[in-house]
Each structure stands twice: as C-alpha cells, then as structure tokens.
Amino acid sequence: MGTAVLAIGCHPDDLEFMMAGTLFLLKDKGCDIHCMIVANGNCGSLEYDAADLARIRREESQEACAFLGAHFHDSITNDLEVFYEDSQIRKVTAVVREVQPDIVILMSPEDYMEDHMNACRLGVTAVFCRGMPNYETIPPRSAYQKPVAIYHALPYGLRDGLDQVVLPHFYCDISSVIDRKQEMLSKHRCQQAWLDESQGLNSYLATMRSMSQTLSRCSVTALSAGGDSSSAAIAVCRAMMCSASRRGVRIHCRSSRPPMLVRVRSMADRSDPCVVPQRVVRSISRLRHEAGSMLR
Length: 296
Ligand SMILES: [Zn+2]
Prior knowledge:
296 residues, Rossmann fold
C-alpha cells in the first residue's frame, strides 16, 4: 500500500487555499490522498440559508476532491461550532483510525480565526489518540500502531491573530501544479459569488495566487542558493513521505511531545520564484540537509 496522506481543513475551501498545491505534488508521487473538512460551511454566504448552503458546499467539496483524486470525508459540525471538545475529538480520531495516514496535514496552530485553530487542535489530538485502545471514537474504530508525520499549513493571510507574519519551516514548490490548485479552488462556486460582490471578480482565486507568490518571495533564494528549485522541492516531498513511511528514521520531535509523533513541521505552498531573505536561505539549507540525511 502506498503512502496515505490525510489533510484536515476547517471549512470547505481551506484545503484549496493553503494545502492543495502540496497535495497535488504528493498525489502525483503516488500517495493516497484523503481530505476531511471539519465544518460544513453553513455560514459562508449572504444568499443561501444554512441548510441549503451546507448542502451546496458539501457538493462543491466533493467535486473539488474528485478533481484532486482524493477521498472525501464528511464534516462533523457547523461553522463557528468547531470546538476542542470531547465528541469532536472522538469523531476526528475515528477518521484518523480509518485512514491510518503516514502524513497528516493540518491547519496552522496560529490563525486569525478560532474555528481554524480549533480544527488544528482537533487534528493534533486525534493523531495523538490513534493508538490508544482505551480511547473510544465516534463511530467506534480500532486503535492502530504506526508512525505518522504532522505538517501544518500556513494560516490564511499568512499572519497570526496578532497580525504577525508566520514563517514556515520549509516551502513546497507548487509552480508545476498552481493551475490545478486554482482549478480545484474554483469548484467552490458559491464562494466566488459571495466574494465577488465584496472584493471583485474572481477575487478568491487571485487571493490564493497572491499568497502563493508572497510565499515565493520568502522562499526561493533558498533554492537558488542551493541549486535548482525543482530538485529542492522534490527533496522536500520525498522527505515528507520518507519521514513517515520509513521505519527507523531519525526522530525529530518537540520535546514536549511524545515520540509517537514522528515530526511536526510547518510547510507552505508557494509558486513563482523571486528574491528571498537570508534567514529563509539558512532555514531551507537546514531542511535540505535534514532531508538528505533522512534519505540516506
Ligand atoms: Zn476557513
């Protein structure tokens, strides 16, 4: 069986904005991709009532997942009802146990929106509980033992709740798949109508590309300092898969976390190279060094 990847977004379209480029790269490398949306998106419109909007957004998410070639996992709650609480942790843990992912990609722990941060916390704890037989999920799913790597996407807008820029540990070069990422995002047609009214035609697509380009300005020098960008991106992708699928790989984890979480890093979709600050160069160099040692 190939490498299984579980991406957990908060609302419909969060995955498309902040993770989809990396997901396409992983898909192209043969990974089995699963997408879960925690909240059903029922508050994201001025036009539809909650029930209709939840139904529409579910259909759009399913279409977007099909375009990615991913498995779709249903939401568990309404918008603004994403809480770090017992039943939601058990429901997300059930999905983790069903998928048994090698890699989990989550929302950023720092974000402008509480729903997003709570979705992230639910995912972290769900992964933590995956191997505990005494922890019962909703619906019941058996615990399993397997290493997993957690990666956090950047927050929407690339800033935390205090408007501070959030820098990732590394970047995935998604230039080759940026058009597919945009196409996937465009499946969320009801969001286009809503955002167009307030921000202009196709603004949500432009916003996504703009964030990717901003990240590229933060990243690419790193790659040019080390040679060609595509090989660095591939190294990152291979490292993501290796970190989870190879047994006996050197474990990197935060000291406060148990070693069952193999690796917790943040990553970013970025495209279109330009100039990058020096400290990012150092960060990418370190990543490439780590990736190299993991692949040996
Ligand atoms: Zn969201």
